[in-house]
Write a structure and sequence with these properties.
The structure holds 4 protein chains of 4 kinds. Helix content of chain A is about 65%, strand content about 5%. By secondary structure, chain A is mainly alpha-helical. Chain A folds into 3 domains: about 110 residues, no CATH class; about 90 residues, no CATH class; about 270 residues, Orthogonal Bundle (ABC transporter involved in vitamin B12 uptake, BtuC), CATH 1.10.3470. In chain A, α8 packs across α9, α12 runs antiparallel to α13 and α12 packs parallel to α14. Chain B is an alpha/beta fold. Chain B is built from 12 helices and 19 strands. In chain B, the strands form 5 sheets. A 7-stranded mixed sheet of chain B has the order 7-6-8-9-10-14-15, sandwiched between helices. Chain B has a 5-stranded parallel sheet with strand order 2-1-3-4-5, with helices on both faces. In chain B, strands 17-18-19 form a 3-stranded antiparallel sheet, with no helix packed on it. In chain B, α2 runs parallel beside α11 and α11 packs across α12. The longest helix of chain B is centred in the first third of the chain and has 20 residues. Chain B is globular and about 65 Å long. Chain B starts with a helix and ends in a 5-residue tail after the last strand. Chain C is mostly helical. In chain C, a hairpin with a 2-residue loop joins β2 and β3. Chain D has one domain: Rossmann fold, CATH 3.40.50.300. In chain D, the strands form 2 sheets. Chain D has a 6-stranded mixed sheet, with helices on both faces. A 4-stranded antiparallel sheet of chain D has the order 2-1-4-5, with helices on one face. In chain D, α4 runs parallel beside α7, α6 packs across α7 and α8 packs parallel to α9. The longest helix of chain D is centred in the C-terminal third of the chain and has 15 residues. Chain D is globular, with a radius of gyration of 18 Å. The chains are: A mainly alpha, B alpha/beta, C mainly alpha, D alpha/beta. Chains in contact: A-B, A-C, A-D, B-C, C-D. At the A-B interface, α5, α10, α11, α14 and α15 of A face α2, β7, α7, α8 and β15 of B.
Chain lengths: ~525, ~425, ~400, ~250
Amino acid sequence: MTLKSFLQALLACLILSFAAPSFAQSDPKPLIDALAKADFNEAEKLLGQIAATGDARVVPALNAFAEGDLYFRKSDNLVFIAKAAGSGFELIDPLTGAAAGQAAKNAVTKIKVNNNLRRVIRSAMGGLTLLSPDRAVRLQAAEAVLRSPSPENLDLVEAALAKETDGEVKARMEEARAVSVLSSDRSIDEKRSAIETIKNLGGRNSLGILNSVSGSIEVGLKGDLDAAIASIESEQQLWDMAQNVWYGLSLGSVLLLAAIGLAITFGVMGIINMAHGEMVMLGAYSTFVVQEVIRDNAPNLFDWSLAIALPVAFLVTGAVGLVIERGVIRFLYGRPLETLLATWGVSLILQQTIRSIFGPTNQEVGNPSWMSGSFPVGGMTITWNRMWIILFSMSIFVALLVVLKKSAFGLNMRAVTQNRRMASSMGIKTPWVDAFTFALGSGIAGIAGVALSQIDNVSPNLGQSYIIDSFMVVVFGGVGNLWGTLVGALSLGVLNKFLEPSVGAVLGKILVLVLIILFIQKRPRGLFALKGRAVEA
Amino acid sequence: MTFKAKFAGALLATVMSTTALSGAFAADDTIKIGVLHSLSGTMAISETTLKDVMLMLVEEQNKKGGVLGKKLEAVVVDPASDWPLFAEKARQLISQDKVAAVFGCWTSSSRKSVLPVFEELNSILFYPVQYEGEESSRNIFYTGAAPNQQAIPAVDYLAESEGVQRWVLAGTDYVYPQTTNKILKAYLMSKGVAESDIMVNYTPFGHSDWQTIVSDIKKFGSAGKKTAVVSTINGDANVPFYKELGNQGIKAEDIPVVAFSVGEEELAGLDTKPLVGHLAAWNYFQSVDAEVNADFIKEWKAFTKNDKRVTNDPMEAAYIGFNAWVKAVEAAGTTDTDKVLDSIIGVSVPNLSGGTSTVMPNHHITKPVLIGEIQADGQFEIVQETPAVVGDEWSDYLPDSKNLISDWRKPMSCGNFNVASGKCGGKGS
Amino acid sequence: MISGFVFRALDGRIVVAVAILLGVALLVPALNLMTPPDSALHIPTYAVSLFGKYLCYALLALALDLVWGYCGILSLGHGAFFALGGYAMGMYLMRQIGSRGVYGNPILPDFMVFLNWKELPWFWHGFDWFVFAMAMVLVVPGLLAFVFGWFAFRSRVNGVYLSIITQAMTYALMLAFFRNDMGFGGNNGLTDFKDILGFPVQADGTRAVLFAMSAIMLALCLLVASAIVRSKFGKVLVGVRDAESRVRFLGFRVENIKLFTFVVSAMMAGIAGALFVPQVGIINPGEFAPANSIEVVVWTAVGGRGTLIGPVIGAVLVNAGKSFFTGAFPEIWLYALGGLFIAVTLFLPKGIVGTVQQGWNSRKAMKAAAEAEKGRDEAVPVTQAQAAE
Amino acid sequence: MNMIAETRQKSLLYLENVSVSFDGFKALNSLSFVVEPGELRAIIGPNGAGKTTMMDIITGKTRPDTGTVLFEDAIDLTKKDEADIAQLGIGRKFQKPTVFESHTVWDNLELALNRDRGVFATLFYTLSTEDEARIEEILSTIRLTHRKDELAANLSHGQKQWLEIGMLLAQEPKLLLVDEPVAGMTDAETAETAELLKEIAKTRSVVVVEHDMGFIRELGVKVTCLAEGSVLAEGSIDFVSNDPKVIENYLGR
């Protein structure tokens, strides 16, 4: 279907305005079929009429419309819900849900939907499903009404409220009623108690609803309204502080993830590893490949894709790290500044390799369902992916600490970094300890890449955007100290997030850099510097 | 010691003479065109695609017999996202490889870097990306959108069909967003939007932590008026931005985001299900229902041997620019810059949205403006299409440029003619 | 005397380099301007400005060599000084545009006009005056280096910590210059220059002169650098590099020594930037990118650090290679570049010049050893004879 | 005038109740120590006794937490940094020989010469005949005249130790702190070094830290034994080596 010109739309609108009233009866079928040739404005009117029928049978059709699954058959302009099947579509009757045969791709046309229509549908669906036998659907319906209040839904809400027995659903419906009352022409007293209800509900959404009626509210209620708004706002301010700390921690955990591998290769081994970012990138690409394989072969495993990607990324990047160490870095011990040059070269090559294999564009790495969306904690919103990333970074940190402090390999590693000759004379194979330490650092960077693929671009440039921040974190925290990296990352994250609202993101970042520079003057060896003579040696 | 010195001197001389001489081998039966897009560095992510498009277009044209009976030959160089290198490579293409025209650049910085080179050496650049306007060079053709071909229609659409009254202008802190937002702010205020209903926010390049800004947008949106975000956020920063939007549950039905730099390529790196309904304004979408577009997509997928490759607006702009140049060269009967510059004005070529685009005397082109909503499959559903709009190089909403026009036809031949003073050259004083 | 010989050789090498540079400064413009374009000897303008650019990079690498090769300070932020010098020159060139900008505003540069600035920010004043601008080319990078170095060297920030904070410095400056509110043209930077001291920047003659200036400045800075490193100060400098605490316990103020060198080096980088801008026609915040500064380190390492000549050769070679590869093999040039860095660090740790010099020295040492051997051979019969007695 | 004040007035170097700790470890524990002008003093003590830390404090490398450190009874060394202290006339030789390996022996000495050490003074310095004579003199003192044009890197371990001592001489200090000068030397070299130090001590004060008891015996001077950051015993070598606390803490082990 091509877009109509304005004139055509006008014409159709005229015809419809005569035709539409004749459909306004209890049978929604002709209304739905009329959607076939309606433009957005007409469709909005039709939706109003469909909702007004109060017929719950239209719900699947409305749902399909919102999802973009509503099609009409070109031959007879009848509307169906269509599901892709093979090269064509399987048609389903919009009202009865009965199968209505197949259709080739070019025999049907999608009925277009836009944001505005989706909003209307949401509101209409809310009204229509308030009486659903399914508790979850009712709850959803009440929330839908809550989010897009309209006085037309008021009667429906009240009817549902009278029948509702479930406590939580009832409470939600009370709130939905309250928001609908506000914009209706109910009595002042009813509105006053509605304001009270909304005030107790709190949150940004309530604030929006209260604000939206502040121009049209009766004079007598102005005071109540303003008081309610002020109350929610002051409460919200406190939550904003908490939210900011959360954002800071979450940014900090991203920095920690980015830096923690470097804390080993640079912090412990003293290699200025400019290819560290590329290890993170390789980890992200491993995730991409794993997801591709899963999508093609076992789509039902998708929610497990990250769990599968973790060991894959660790092994892939660890192996690449091993090769780099054996091939390049082992010749450069004791010449830290030259490792910078060589690893810079390595990073260019890795970037270009990835670019040659996967192309320069972003690759899609999906969020498993458990990492999507958010949940409210009081007045703040916590997104699942951020929460998992915080937990994830902390567990990597702990795991690494355990490996370093408790395992035999960790013991060897510390022995080698503290006194190479002594370790070697005690029978430790220092070259292999070096190689595996580097591989471990790389592998951990790869694991970090799995997590970062969830919040950032997966492109050949991924690593470049983290490398400088990673070095800042490690240096700020104090080279050679894992705890320093942890505290450094988190404090830089929180600092950044507290600067950002007042000075903006750009200036905030500059200020953080300047503060790091000044801090290093004060403590030339970072936050958790080792003191004493040994360091100088 | 002296040996070393001689060696160094000889080396220098060799390098110099080889670079100087290698241009001399251009065969007579080919016409060379330059392709100046970054294949490495930060911009490779966007520009590599355009290089491929150019190669495809050249191949197609050669199948049709080339131009003026000669084969076309694309000279590809890599300016590596390094702006001074753009100027160097442009100079190399023009004076050493003797290309007839150059297709390239993405960022404004790169275009600004090569502009003096093209003017000095009198060659032609086709610039295929949307940009902030405020420029009209005798030697450059701007086939991407000017702000009036993208931003203003998008804002109109939101105001009219979604009833938006409150605006967040969020952008990356560089010249295109700054200028576009200045224009938009002036435009919105001229439409009666109060200054307190406009929030402007800038972020650094490659910004990846959007938590605070998204929650600020939420806050701004809870003032009881319908709110929308106009995003001029650049390239890489978009993916984390949209991910954060999706996760914080900002649905398009509540606060729609309309973007000017997000196309099919950017969405290819995203799970778009949470983003359904957010908008973009371009002059072309892959989902355009037109025969010419279907052919183009088929060709593209065949050329790249990848069924998943998508097409986008800058590709269409490159397509229009290339075809306009071919047509102009054929009309002029030569690739001589001055002749082509004369013959190209007024040339109309089919665009991919089913209409035609005409090269205007201000070196911008006419294109329709399409508003699309993001779909779950990463494509756009076109919700509005305007008739073709002429690219406006000097914005009517900026105080210092509203009196300027550009007309490169004789006798005016001026890129910044001041209609108030009647003189060429800015203020004309 | 071996030491005397080494000094004389060093002398000779610098003198040769300076002579070559001065020769190039004369010859290249002459070949460019005076030979007809189809002559085999003709050097096209394209090549002139390309090589002019290389010479600017060479000067930047030389500046880095002074602090890294001789003083042991690995600055990952030298690009910042280069860019600041470039901006100072760029601001002069912008002011020279006058009312020839697209908006015809006689005072404000174009980018300020369309972003609605009403008056020239205070820090733009004076830049219409060439002498002032040239002073700023030295003062601004010098001042930044002074302030930065004053704090860093006094607090004894060392080694990799210093490298990382110099990187933070250039990164912060990059972000700052990207901001349009700073008044330096944001990401587009300063461009579309018209003329310099009244001569059009695009003209062949101007380009030739700029090229010659680059060669001459490089020669001059080579002489200055070589004078510094061959003085007693230079020996102290190397001492700081090799055994900083010893220098300190000998009573030298290491922070002053470093500060002086850092400032001189920053000024040289500023000069390089100032010469670079009119030749490439643009300066923008991309020059502050940390990756650029790392590349400078690479040129220096490739040529051979601590040799003065090496970085010059390294900068020219790597950049010529870059120009060639980005044109001839755009798809694979990053492999070549990356491979080069690895190869140089693994196989030529002293860089090209360092390795040649080492070969030279060891050949000499072998000769000396052979001499000694011969001496001993002659001596042996005597001892044997004595033993036989 | 009481005893303490008198000692202090006469002293070249005066440490009183100096304490310093690193991360809770007390490296020096109210250490008091006096060196008189023209004195040659040996310091012994087990590892971790605080010998090197004491030197660090005297030379300004480490700041004490508490205590007084005076030079010539007037100058508070805790307020000065290494360069100042070196210019005051305190020279220090490290445990590990630290010379400028990429310079020649001659250049090493030239750098150490007690001349104006300012940036511009060194930039425009030219070698005067007087300085040349002084360097030649030191070269012969440290027995390196024949190797003066060689890179310091090519010297043997012992020669590097001597070169470092020579550099200290060039500095013309009033007080020389020498940390383990004979570590890694042959017996012959050790004996020669003892001679060299005795010769040097004729014109200035010298403090020698050493483990080698034979060497200390050879020096035949007053010995201070440190342990756990404070003075355990002080006196002649025989007196100290018979002290039961010293035997328990140091020699016995």
